[in-house]
Amino acid sequence: MQVRDIFDLLNRLAPDGLAMDWDNVGLQLGRPEWPAGKILLTLDVTPSAADYATARRFDLIVSHHPLIFKPFRAVTRPEVLNLARAGIAVIALHTNLDVVPQGVNYSLADVLGLQVLGLLSEETGAKWYHGSVTVPPLYAEKVMETIHSAGAGRIGCYDCCSTRHEITGTFRPLEGSNPLLGRHGKLEKVDEVELEFMVDSFNLSAVQRAIAKAHPYETPAVYFVEAQNANPAFGLGLVCELKKALKLSALAEQVKARLKAPFVRLWTAGKDKDTLVRTVAVCGGAGGSLISLAAGKADVFITGDINYHALLESAIPLINAGHFYTEYPVLNKLKKLLAEEGIKADLLPLSRHEINNQLLV
């Protein structure tokens, strides 16, 4: 097993093209051909995490937060130098892991026992395109299968989505062409099939290559137009539902217990703490930018890193459970997903995360 094998698997789970444009994800340290027999999962590549990985001879660290977020002016950080010296690779899955099914927010909802109703926001770092290509009828099935295999046709929780229409096409081969049908200089009219499909930007190049390889025409009639809406398969945050309504205070206690957080902060937004709530919006990590969206879709919003002014201005009750504790559940999900592929990975012990070594006074 090599680093490239783990990277390819993780990229299928959380394509790096879904990351926000300000983010930095992917293979951040090491080479694709380095061995990856022993894997460590962590939220952060801190000096403590690097020491742990080095002492126990791990080959690869898979981290949620990037080891390298901003460009270095000088490579002096001890954890970077120690990992490089030990030949330990680092892969980061950050905002791309935030917006996918089985990612950060679905893992959080699962631990909290919530039923997912839908996305809170359609925000991702990707674009969505409507694609079309015309083919001779005998080649339609082969070309469409190739397009789907390259990643097109994913809409929400469905794949292999496409439409096809019988059309009449015209063309005239010019000098220098090598047509499948027709003769140079003669206008041709042929029966064709128009194939239409949706494709995410991170699969666009692969789909274009697939069409070029499978299509029988020398110059296929193909186009891609950016859609104004987003693929409902991906998005930031979730709107969920409790199995039964709970008081705000009871929900806050439940969140604290299930996330094993030392404390949570409940902001009632002027409501009584005994107010019953049923619909719950969640966003692991720092979800302050989504408060206004949550206010229109849920009774209460669970997230982390909410600042003072966001609290004061919120029209919806908030449960601030902390950045770390709302994201940590995804590590267990990653461990399970890797295990299903026959790949063993270890979690950095909670005691080695610096956030758990701080004194509360």
Describe the structure.
- By secondary structure, the chain is an alpha/beta fold.
- Helices cover 29% and strands 26% of the residues.
- It has 12 helices and 15 strands.
- Strands 5-10-12-13-14-11 form a 6-stranded mixed beta sheet.
- Helix 9 (291-295) links the parallel strand 12 (276-286) and strand 13 (300-304).
- Helix 2 (47-55) packs parallel to helix 3, helix 5 packs across helix 12 and helix 6 packs antiparallel against helix 7.
- The longest helix is centred in the middle third of the chain and has 14 residues, at 201-214.
- The model has no long low-confidence stretch (mean pLDDT 94).
Which secondary structure elements does this structure contain, and how are they paired or packed?
Blueprint: H1 3-13, E1 26-29, E2 39-42, H2 47-55, E3 60-63, H3 78-86, E4 89-92, H4 95-98, H5 104-111, E5 115-121, E6 128-135, H6 140-149, E7 163-171, E8 188-200, H7 201-214, E9 222-226, E10 236-247, H8 248-259, E11 265-267, E12 276-286, H9 291-295, E13 300-304, H10 308-313, E14 318-320, H11 323-327, H12 329-340, E15 345-347
Parallel strand pairs: 2-3, 2-15, 3-4, 12-13, 13-14
Antiparallel strand pairs: 1-4, 5-10, 6-8, 6-9, 7-8, 10-12, 11-14
